Amino acid sequence: MAWIYLVLAGLLEIGWAVGLKFVDGFTRLWPSVGTVAAMIASMILLALAARTLPIGTAYAVWTGIGAAGVAILGIVWLGESRDLARVLCIGLIVVGTVGLKLSSSE
What we know:
The chain contains four helices and no strands. The protein has helices at about 1-20, 30-50, 55-80, 85-105. With about 110 residues, the protein is mainly α.
């Protein structure tokens, strides 16, 4: 169950990080409410996962999901650079994240 919490926390991290693009310094009410709600839910799920998983693994996987996910959404939805080096580096984040999962004893 901890891994499910952690993946959901990572997906919510993607949501709140992308949400920061739309809150306009937290001056737009509904994007701000959604972003803050995703932040809180993401942290709660990370904390639940960290009850069982080593914190180093949990935090690294959480940030890996968030970093790769936000970078991919930036490319797909926000027109950010699709430079080969950038795509390869995102791939390295994904490989590292999967590697942590596979090497975890939990």
